[in-house]
Every structure is written in C-alpha cells, then in structure tokens.
Amino acid sequence: MAKNKKKQPKQGHPGRSQHGMVSVGQVKIDRGIDAMTPKFVRWYSQFDVDTETSLVVLAAVRETLYGYADSAPLDSVTEFDVRLLFAAMEELIEFQSGFEPAEQAEQMRGLIHMAWADYLDYLEEMGLWEKSNQDLQWLRSKLEGPSLFATDDLEVSAAPGELEDLLLTDITKLPLVHLARNFAQWCANETGPVQGRILDEDFIPNAAKALSDGVLKTFNTEQAEQVLTFTFMGLLRAEVVALEAPNQLSAGARFSEFQKSTGEVGFATIYMFMQTFLDSYLEMPEDTDPLVVETWGLANLWILEGIEAMGHEVAEPRDEQFSASVWEAAHQRMAVLRTLGLVEEGEYYSLPGFVAAFLTDVDEEIEDENLDEQQLDSKWDELMALLPDESQRLKREEPYTGKVLQLKLGLQATKPPIWRRVLVPMDLHLGDLHDIIQASFDWYDGHLHEFRSGGYKGTSYGPEIEEMEYDEVEDAFLVSELLKAEKDRLDYAYDFGDGWEVRIDVEKVLDSAEGQLPRCTGGRRMAPIEDSGGPWGWAEMLKAMNDSAHAEHGEVSEWFEEMGMEEIDPAAFSIEEINEALELEF
C-alpha cells in the first residue's frame, strides 16, 4: 500500500526540539539580539513608530533565527545563509498556520515578512550586512514576492468566475504551456479542424520536427523528444487530446478550456497537465545506467532544494562525490527546466512559487475581501472538486479475511505505563505499521524513525532516505516477515532528539477479525505531545502544569494553550479517536 502523506498541525516550536533545553545557537541569538536592541529601537524611532513595534520586529527576527539555528550553524545574528534563513521563516509560518485560522496565519506571514524587511534595512543602513548585495536582493525579493494565491499582491477584486483567471496569469506565460498548446493543436488537426493525427512510432519525431521553430529549437533531439513525450502524457491525462480507435487522436473534452485557460475548468485542466508533466519528468528513469540514475538523483536534489528556498548555486564547484559527467548532465537537465520556465533564471536553481506549489500541496486559502469566509470555503471546495484525487493509499476493495496480529505497543520509559493494543492485518508493510503507531499515539510524523529487529545491534529498517543509512527499506518488508508468532518482538524509535521508543510485542495471532482493520482495541493514558522532550521532558511538563507554584508553570501552561489544550488529563484515553484516525489513514 502506498503511503498517503497527510498535513497535520505541528506541535511544539519548530526551533526548539526539546522543552527546557537551550542550545548554544539560541544563547548566541539571545546575546546578539539583546546587544542590538537599544540601537535598533533608536533607529526605528526615526520613523515615528512606537518602541513596542520595534520590539515586536526583533521578537519575530529572534524566533526565525531560533529555527535557523536548529538546523544549521549560525555565525551571528547579522551573518547567515539567506536561503536557509528563508526556509526557517517558511517553517515558522507553516507551524503557525497548523493551528491558527487562515486569516491569522496570513497575518503572521505578513508580520514576519515585514519584520525581516525592516531588519534588513537596519543591517544595510548601519553597515552590518555581512553577505553579498546579491544575497540581500534575493532575500528582499522573496519577502516582497507574491505567493501563488496572494490576491492582495495581484490587486484582485474578484467577481465570481474571475478569480481563477487571475490565478492563471503567470502560469499561462510559461514556455511549457505555450509549447503544450501548439502541440495540442498539432495533435488534433492535420491541416485544419479535421481528423487528428495517427499515434504511431513516428508520432513524437514528427511532432519534434513540426514544432522545432519554438522552444524546442534550444534542445537536442533526445531532449526535445523527451519533453514532447511527457507533454503528450499530460495532455492525454488532462483530456486536452483524446485517443480514438484505431490510434487516432482528436481534440479532447477540455481542449478549448486548455487553449483559453480561463475559469475553474481551465485552472483544473492546467493543474492536471502540469502535475502529470512534472511527475513524469521527475520520476525515476527505467534506464538502469548508473550515469542516468545519478544524474536524475542529483537534478531532483537541486529541485528539492529549490522548493525549500535553498536553491543550489549554479556555478558552485563540483561535489567530488559526483563524476564530471554526472555533474554536467544534471546541469543540462536543469537547463531544460529553465528553458520551459519551470526553474527561474539567475545564480541559483530556484522555482517560481506556482511551480513549487504543483510539486507540493496546493492547499493555501484563496482570500478576497469581497467574499465572506463561507463563500470562500465553498468556492475553494468547488475548485478542488475539479482536480484529480491526490490520495495515494489504496483502499481495500474487499474486506480483509487473512490472519491478524494482535500487537501491544508499549511506550518505553514512561511511568505510569502508556500503551496501545492494535489489530493489524498481516499483509501490511512496515511503512504501514509506522503509520499505525503514529495514529495510535496521536503524533504527526514530523521526525525520522526506524524499526529494529534483534535488539540494538540488530537489523534496522526505515524509509528510503539518502541521508540515512538503514540496513533495509521498510516498505520492502511485510509486517508478517518480522512478526510471525506470539512473543515475537520489534522495536520502533521515533524522533531521535526526543528519543521516543515503542516496544512492539505480538500478543496473539488471530485467524481473522471482523470490523475495521487496522483497529485499536485497548490502551492506557494520554500519549505525550511531540517535541515535549521525550519521556523525561513530558513527565517534567506534566509536573509543572499541575503545580501552580512550579517555576515553569506559566511557560508550560502557555505552551499547552498554544496547542489548544488548556486542560490536560494524563489519564485520558479514547479508542474512538484513535480508530477515527486509523480509518482516515487506511
């Protein structure tokens, strides 16, 4: 079963992995900001702005730098990598949007961007900027640039039916879309609005020749044919062109909407086409030639860095772990994307906002002051209903009738004990078991994890991540390969910073089980909240929360309130809530 990634509200603070622990980076930030505060306040006062506002600006800068220092070394509060900084900024905003209404989350985005714009002005004017002018301009452009659905930046006064047209303004300017429109027209017509072309082995080469006077003229034969192949796949899936028997092409149901690219249907068609093209281009090649595979992996890494606002520098010297051939081929692959408009021109491989959105989740709110919240929700639902289903986990078509494992999931080092009992079909993979554990303990899958059989020195299993050296890939193993009989055991570790450990014991092997599967049938006590410092940190937080005289009672209470949990009952446990989460996942 494929893994269905879900977005859930984050818990804790993205820049503080353990409650009650202060890193060296945070100390450096606090000292730097505190030392700067008097001068910054005086500088800020020249704009007739009150002192409180200047302190709010520095508070936003401080919080962003906390997140930066959690993932990368920080030299000082005036010297940092601008791409890593912008990534930390976006993470802080995403964290806030996880539990705030959309309007408040957008206000948070505006506050952080405004604060950093002011802070950059201060650093530049006071001669404290320690990076290049290009870095300064890059960061400013990111702070000032509109997001995909930032209607204020687009000066939108959206009447019904016009909003989608405005969203398509930049997308339809892409050279790729221009090529696709010409290709669709060529597919549907011979010499005019008559019968379409025949799909045979000469189809793509003939198309490359016919369309060679456009963007394709910058590509070699192999590149041109590859781009056209992926373009054709997108046109077919988006129903822009249709395949009629015998292998004859014609204009599809959405041909005219694609050519005009207006309104909701036009947006949905463009979305479907772009998604298919990008998925095809970024998919691992079937060719097993190491040069091809390494080139694909390196280029995709640069694309991923572009999504995370940490674009790879085009002129950066070759990394010695890659051969000169791979390095050059990866740059050529990126050049194709640049020519198509999918990667921006400049010193770094960065992505236009709407392209990054196609590669992630297009889940931002469409906002407009002329529409109330209920109208916006309805409009967004109508739009998304036109888009393809993004769910990746396949639901069972028939009820599971095989053997079932009754597992006890015991969270280690917790007193009193915290545990769950679950029924798990034996045909699931370890990756599915990971999802079951996450749902059972109400965690959001925001950290690394691993399974281990045979104790500490045994075999490790984890997700397929290049940076991690697991012995085996978890999705390649069924649960039943490691847990077969009563008393079999498997260990699970999650969030290597907090150090959550779950012992998985087989209590019974059942011939079958009726009802929802997987299913929780028992358990004890509330699961610890993520980013609370592990078993010890969680216990200390509960102690502080329940003792009004405790030195950290106020801070901990505020932390829980931010999580929407004003009252905490550590003994609480709900089978119903866990099974709702499991049913949603599976």
From TrEMBL:
Highest taxon of source: Bacteria
UniProt xrefs under SUPFAM superfamilies: MM3350-like
Domain annotation Plasmid pRiA4b Orf3-like: ranges: 404-576
Region (Disordered): 1-21
TM segment ranges: none
UniProt feature, compositional bias: Basic residues: 1-10
Pfam families on file: PRiA4_ORF3 (PF07929)
Entry protein name: Plasmid pRiA4b ORF-3 family protein
Organism: Glutamicibacter bergerei
